[in-house]
Amino acid sequence: MSRKRIIFCDFDGTITVNDNIVAIMKHFKPDGWESLVEQVISKKMTIREGVGQMFALLPTSRRQEVIDYAINNVTIRDGFAELLAYCKEQRIEFYVTSGGIDFFVYPVLSVFPIPDDHIYCNASNFNGSHIEIVWPHACDEHCHNDCGMCKTTIIRRYSPDDYERILIGDSVTDFEGAKLVETVFARSHLIDLCSELGLNYFPFNDFHEVIQRLEEMSVQ
């Protein structure tokens, strides 16, 4: 019996053309945000620490401004709707595994036929003076990277004996997950990592290319 295909797809910079967290910071320009981004990318700070501290720079009095900006300035990468249709047709399980935040991830994805329980992301709390990020999908006992939204924890729930696991991503939040799966579709920083480690990966610019490669993999 052949293994069932399952896709774990990043959101920021993958489903969307831009990185929404960075875009929010660039737009509102809270003091100190640039240093935090640099420290996360260079791995001098964990993702959870960096993202948490970035949003803690933004007062909750600007809540609606932040939400509106995040939702209204998103561009979806070409071919995403077609990829979802292809997955449905081919009975490929599709999960969004995002280091993004609920207040923009769920609204942006609401126009697509993805069940809420197939979307993993971080949560937010606007009750205090500044935005607090909440971490409902933390690392399990096998991961010590303080991911925030731990993609490897989710991937490990699906045995390689039963599933052909595929990751689609672009950057630092996808690094650990890429090491676990059988196939990676990579953009940006993730290409460099996959190349360095000799992982089984395919670079892509849009989701039409992903569909084409998935079809080619099916006939090999």
Automatic annotation (TrEMBL):
Keywords: Amino-acid biosynthesis, Hydrolase, Methionine biosynthesis. Its EC number is 3.1.3.87. One of its GO terms (molecular function) is 2-hydroxy-3-keto-5-methylthiopentenyl-1-phosphate phosphatase activity. It holds the Pfam family HAD. It is an enzyme of class 3 (hydrolase). Pathway: Amino-acid biosynthesis; L-methionine biosynthesis via salvage pathway; L-methionine from S-methyl-5-thio-alpha-D-ribose 1-phosphate: step 4/6. It comes from the Bacteria. InterPro entries: HAD-like_hydrolase_phosphatase (IPR050849), HAD-like_sf (IPR036412), HAD-SF_hydro_IB_MtnX (IPR017718), HAD_hydro_PyrdxlP_Pase-like (IPR006384), HAD_sf (IPR023214). It catalyses: 2-hydroxy-5-methylsulfanyl-3-oxopent-1-enyl phosphate + H2O = 1,2-dihydroxy-5-(methylsulfanyl)pent-1-en-3-one + phosphate. Belongs to the HAD-like hydrolase superfamily. MtnX family. Dephosphorylates 2-hydroxy-3-keto-5-methylthiopentenyl-1-phosphate (HK-MTPenyl-1-P) yielding 1,2-dihydroxy-3-keto-5-methylthiopentene (DHK-MTPene). This is 2-hydroxy-3-keto-5-methylthiopentenyl-1-phosphate phosphatase. It comes from Paenibacillus baimaensis. The gene is mtnX.
